[in-house]
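Field: sequence (string)
Field: structure_tokens (string)

Example rows 1 and 2, in order.
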Amino acid sequence: MLHPMTIEPEQQGGVGTQDAFQRLWTPHRMAYIQGENKPTGPEAGDGCPFCGLPAMSDQDGLIVARGEHVYAVLNLYPYNGGHLLVVPYRHVADYTELDGPETAELGDLTKRAMTALRKASGAHGFNIGMNQGAAAGAGIAAHLHQHVVPRWGGDANFMPVVGHTRVLPQLLADTRQMLADAWPVD
């Protein structure tokens, strides 16, 4: 049985030449490629999605946990299932701009994210980090955010390496609920 997003060449209205390849169509990725939800400038009022998310419900904003100074949210364009971002509420671009309480809570929510991901999904390891500035690869450089990416043995298969496609086994809303339920409390 084919994945629902997979279309065989002969099902494409006769366009193209039939071959042995299946196609995995991911039209939702065009939003990311075309820059949807990216700020129009460096200021908090320039459409920064990280500034707008806290005003939303946890479900609508895909927020997994909220602290006093930072919050944890699912990445809309995840590298792996459960890919979280730990984000300060305050609109700052650089790690050195965080004050002491923000720095401490960013570290604490990162630890809690790891605990929740291990409990909910059995993550074997993590990639944790920040891209500081556009030159370093930050997609939204104006608002600091730390990535917490769960990893499992063998999760880097041929799809991302050869096919440049991520295969995610769960809807983001379901992942958010699973992680919120597993989130450790004080």
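Row 2 begins here:
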Amino acid sequence: MDTPTDFLFLNERISTNFNPFYEGEYLVIQTYPREIGLRISKRDFDYQSAKNYCELENMAHDYTSFGVRVFHEQKLWDIDFCGHPSNISKQQDWKISPEYLSAHSDSETNE
């Protein structure tokens, strides 16, 4: 049975304390083949440095590709050619299952 402590990660104020990334941080991640978890190759606050590293990684690997994402508003975002967030990336570090979220708001499961 779930306890109130189990649902603390649904509280945004609490869950952001455990997030390992910082606002505006650029992440070079493996985009192919997709892993179950987020595989990060480099973290940097300088867009040009992250972009250069990503290009080198893509040249060095034949069967793996990498991409640059930026951490913005507690999510990973794709970036435009200037390094600004353009749209939310399909790769995210973690997600809350919709069934788990709905169980939290169900009055019959909360005691």
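free_text_note (row 2): The mean pLDDT is 80.
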